[in-house]
Amino acid sequence: MIQDLFTPSVQHSLDLVGIFVFAISGALLAVRKNFDVFGIAVLAEVTALGGGIFRDVIIGAVPPAAFTDLGYFLTPLFAAALVFFLHPEVERINLAVNVFDAAGLGLFCVAGTIKAYEYGLGLTSSAALGLATAVGGGVLRDVLANEVPSLLRWDRDLYAVPAMVGAGIVVLCIHFEALNAYTSALAVITAFVLRLLAITRHWRAPRAWNRRSAVDEKATAQ
């Protein structure tokens, strides 16, 4: 299990790092949307904690960890304050933010899948909730910012697919009774590397086969 990889304190620290980076992405979008300080804080909190809260509510792990651990709640606020005062500098280190975001994606999709399975869900449902843990906050962020969620847009680098692969590796290992610290780490690293490759090589999901272009559709309408 992923809990066997690290001591509880190290696992908690990794969770906080992932939460912090996710919160940074939410706060940056709020700045680009010209939100006020409250809007920046809300988007940071939602982006960082939304996926985990959704998972915990579905599996019955209530109250969610975000409401029982003060560190989980305060970390996004710290990220929001950092972006509020230093957003030009944070924008300039976007590559580093993306790397940590990819690491958080890998960690959360695996941890979410394992937690869902431990609470009695089946393999498919556990994988789905692992995916939701990793990307749910980003979806809520985009909806609140009145944007089409990034993971649904063809012009964005693959984001959900690496999380799906990581969650899929976990449920396969569970099915074949091979889930342990090493295979959990393999799932995290696989999702992490796939996301980094998607960023650097601009991998994108295919669109509908023989799809007409927007120009063709406009001409037909006229």
UniProtKB/TrEMBL annotation:
Record carries keyword Cell membrane: yes
UniProt-recorded name of the protein: Trimeric intracellular cation channel family protein
Ranges for domain Glycine transporter: 14-87, 99-173
Species in which this protein is naturally found: Streptomyces luteolus
Family: Belongs to the UPF0126 family.
Subcellular locations according to the entry: Cell membrane
Organism superkingdom: Bacteria
Pfam families: Gly_transporter
Transmembrane segments: 12-31, 38-58, 70-88, 95-114, 120-140, 160-179, 185-203
Record keywords, A-Z: Cell membrane, Membrane, Transmembrane, Transmembrane helix
InterPro entries: Gly_transporter
Bilayer disposition of the protein: Multi-pass membrane protein
Lineage: Bacteria, Bacillati, Actinomycetota, Actinomycetes, Kitasatosporales
